[in-house]
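Sequence in, structure out.
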Amino acid sequence: MQDQFPLFSSPLKLAHRLWEKLLCKEDIVIDATIGNGKDTLILAELLSLKGGGRLWGLDIQAKALETTKALLEGTLPAFIPSINLCLQSHETFPEEILPSSVKLIVYNLGYLPGADKSLTTHTHTTLISIKNALTLLCDGGCLSITCYPGHSEGQREYLAVHELLQSLSPKEFCISEHIFTNRTLSPILILLQKALSTQR
């Protein structure tokens, strides 16, 4: 699509550009669904370019952690951020991550590409995770959520996430969605930013 419509990026490429604009030196970042590790790698590279930081990656599948670890070890330069990969659901976050301390939390929902499609993120746990994630964001911090409405659970998940975020105070959060209007099964990028304290 991008070759035919050069103005339009895929939702993921758009997200990557916004992450680059957002992140600064010493930021804390969470990849809540590491999958095949591609987003984790991009986050690690961005933190490296910015001068360092701390990156947490979560997934319930050991295969995802193994793939991501191999990708990071084979690609990253010598100077890398502190990286912790955790075998756990995104429903909860490691206790070491303090409230109001995280600059960016990334969700790439759905199932692990090339793996069992029945092992997908689920609406119930995703909503719990997002509610917990909101407490971790620092002022100016962001959630980046890519949803996949092209399968039944993904459609339910997107609608539930949309409803949850729509209920949040516009004084505390600014939220947008990037949707291809005439491509109804395409991924949807949701971006949320917590207000700076001086703007509340």
